[in-house]
User: Fold this.
Amino acid sequence: MDYNNYLKNDQPVAYKIFYNALKNNHLFHAYLLSGEIGTPLLGVSKFIAKSILCKDASPFACESCSTCKRIEDETFGDLIIIDGKKDVIKKQNIEKIEEEFSKTSLEKYGKKVYIINLVENMNEDSINALLKFLEEPMENTYAFLTTENEFRVLPTILSRSQVIRFNRIDKNILIEEAIKLGTKNEDAELLSNFYNDAEVIFTESTNEEYLTSKENATDLFSKINKEDELRFFIENSLCQKITTKVSVRFFFDILIFFFKEAQNYKIQNETIFKSYVKILELINKRIKNPSDVILELMEARNELNFNLNTSLLILHTLTKIFEV
Assistant:
């Protein structure tokens, strides 16, 4: 993805902030990048990290030197990335940053960068450790925090960071561009809710984890009016197929999308997600209060931050939603 053009064309405010900061060598010690699900916040964070460390930056990274490539591959010595999308961010993760960055720089540049993706997925101990680290920033050390839910980020973290909010690209435009690249209509429509770039949508449309999650969700909805089959399907199929926290989180996200869009479709009687009209109609016939279901799914998604049995979480959540 061309992050320079993405920022310049689609995120002009963020582009101007980072351009001036890099050009004038006046970077803030911590940035919080905030955007809806699908905004490439981690990718932008890595791009700005490259721009700080790239010897050929003008002022943004060249993307072709060995430093840029090593940052992209996450093998650069003075870069630490903690990804809350993969697992809950623990105190030990923050302590690792402190420990590593208290030592002499491994690289010749003398600058260090750490990225914490999805800070809303931190536990209480890790938040306290991060706050202390943000209060006493080390010289030539820069933090990039990201969030897809700013309301779940503590005010104390917000106050210690420069918050940069990213715009969501119009879904109609995303879908149209993704289809032009060769993405199937149904995948372009669904993935436009999770990714904010047509090229990424095209790439992710062939991802096995996505295809499996889509299949599981559509299979589930095809059975919601067959109560005698539904519980058996949930218990003996879904719970066996969806086992990792990442796959469960993505599965819940897909369900949340469908229930939100069903609610909108019921009110407006139209949708841009033409491939899924039948599913939306099935949901509206079966579920009286989609908003209650959405809250239930969001709570279940948040429960993934704790060490729970994912199969039991799926079983409990879906049997409660569909009352089977």
